[in-house]
Design brief:
elongated; 284 residues; DUF4123; 11 helices; two-stranded antiparallel sheet; 12% strand; DUF4123 domain-containing protein
């Protein structure tokens, strides 16, 4: 069943005489897009990629549709499956659709050549992260003419009001492009870096590990351990990886565990000194 939060938001915006909008991911919702196109008047929809430098991608790009009634039956199939990330909802002043589409067209391309990319504003996950991190002062330049938005944020519907709807230039350093990486993406990057570190300098020992256990699972466990110990710097993570790789059965001895009153710095210094001491003894 549709969450009552989304229905309540739709009714509130309708009672305020605002234009209701659907932001739709056309690439993954082609059948739904065609249904809306066939049942909408020309002035009720826009292709966001159309008439831009990425116009050739318009067929796969997002579309924005306006609709009159909060109980529009075309919404049912979307509101009942928000976890499929089809897009999100917004409200505008009457006649505000062209200006709002221009707002997002001006924010589509991010990065500099040759590393440019398209900003996926139409993905509810992208919107949710931005809204979760942006300050109230940064919201107007992000949401532009939108008065309010309603989106799925992973476990339920959430609505956010724009403090000062209007037309704004794109900031020199858009704050929505400076957000911390999602936890999963950060972990993927750290896993890739750890994998490259061991391949580059310790490939034989790493290959030996692979003969007895899954390297990916082992690396995940090492990264979780570094996180738990507060060893976030690359130097400390590499130290932990290498010492674990060279340890018997690729597992650290009990004395590696932090003491009850040790800070992360004290903990690292202790085991680093012990490792240097034993390596010196082995060398002699």
């Amino acid at each position: 069943m549709t969450d009552s939060t989304a229905l309540r938001w739709l009714n509130e915006q309708h009672r305020a005489d605002r234009l209701l909008c659907l932001v739709l991911d056309s690439q993954n919702e082609r059948d739904m897009r065609q249904r809306w196109l066939k049942s909408s008047r020309y002035e009720q929809f826009r292709s966001v990629y159309g008439e831009t430098v990425v116009a050739e991608l318009a067929d796969a790009g997002p579309y924005v549709f306006t609709f009159e009634r909060p109980d529009d039956r075309r919404l049912d199939a979307l509101l009942d499956r928000p976890h499929t990330h089809w897009g999100w909802l917004a409200s505008l002043d009457r006649g505000g659709l062209p200006g709002w589409v221009r707002h997002w067209q001006e924010r589509l391309i991010v990065g500099a050549r040759p590393h440019q990319a398209l900003y996926r504003f139409h993905d509810a996950r992208v919107l949710a992260r931005a809204l979760a991190h942006l300050s109230a002062e940064a919201l107007p330049a992000y949401l532009g003419p939108a008065i309010s938005v309603c989106h799925w944020q992973g476990s339920g519907w959430q609505s956010v009001d724009n403090p000062v709807p209007g037309t704004y230039p794109v900031p020199d350093s858009p704050p929505w492009l400076q957000l911390p990486l999602p936890d999963e993406q950060t972990l993927d990057i750290r896993l890739a870096n750890a994998h490259r570190f061991l391949l580059a300098g310790h490939v034989q020992a790493y290959a030996g590990l692979a003969r007895s256990e899954d390297p990916h699972t082992w690396l995940r466990a090492r990264l979780a351990l570094a996180e738990a110990w507060g060893w976030s710097s690359p130097q400390r993570l590499e130290f932990l990886l290498l010492q674990s790789l060279l340890a018997p059965a690729h597992e650290l001895a009990p004395h590696w565990r932090p003491g009850p009153d040790e800070t992360p710095d004290e903990h690292f210094e202790r085991v680093d000194q012990l490792s240097r001491h034993w390596q010196g003894e082995d060398a002699s």
